[in-house]
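Database export, one record per block. Field names are fixed; values are copied verbatim from the stored entry.
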Amino acid sequence: MVKVSVIIPCYNMGGYIDEAVDSALAQTFTDIEIIIIDDGSDDTMTKSKLQNYLRPKTRVIHMQNSGVAAARNRGISEATGCYILPLDADDRIAPTFVEKACYVLDGCPSAGIVTSRVELFGEAHGEWRMSPDISLPHILLDNQIVCASLFRKSDWQKTGGYDIVMHHGWEDWDLWLRVLQLGRDVVRLPEILFFYRIRGASRDRSLGFYTKWRLMVQLMLNNRWLYLKYCCHILCVLISGTRKRPASI
């Protein structure tokens, strides 16, 4: 058994997967395992690369294409770590991210999610400007927690995991809301420790208006009691016009 399991879903990302794995292997915290879930990749390069992928502390699980939520759930279900770090196959983490995030979860029983500041790379550059307040109720209308955040496997089990119905996106936002409903806190490390690749074909960037609002409806249905609890706050934000466009990365 290890302490931290890094879960990397991969669908046709053979050109990027080495960078993600390298960033996980470069961690100053070494008690980790890396689980790559090949989510039914159908391009020759990715299929060939993952067929016999030999990297330290790394194993590959092959499954029929089912979407990122199902792939993450599959990887976490087979993980031996008590802490989970999802990492998309085209992103990277800084060498000290796992060490510093573990320190928070180890020392603060109420903490359930540890995230960080974010640097964009690829087709966009610079720091992703985020709201300083990532607690409830502020997160209900604008996700400010990146998908690559450390959390407890036991909390994933209690929430039922990622919702596979949300296969178009925002499954991470939905999970964060359910973790917060367990009474957990979210902590953002004050450093840039996550690097998010911007691509023209990125899943969230390609979502249309109708799809985004369908996802928002599903998000609210999944967490209806939370939205009802803070309905007055939500109405005030909507009426004042200060609400940002829903975003999840």
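Remark 1: The first strand starts at residue 4 and ends at 10.
Remark 2: The two ends are 30 Å apart (CA to CA).
End of record.
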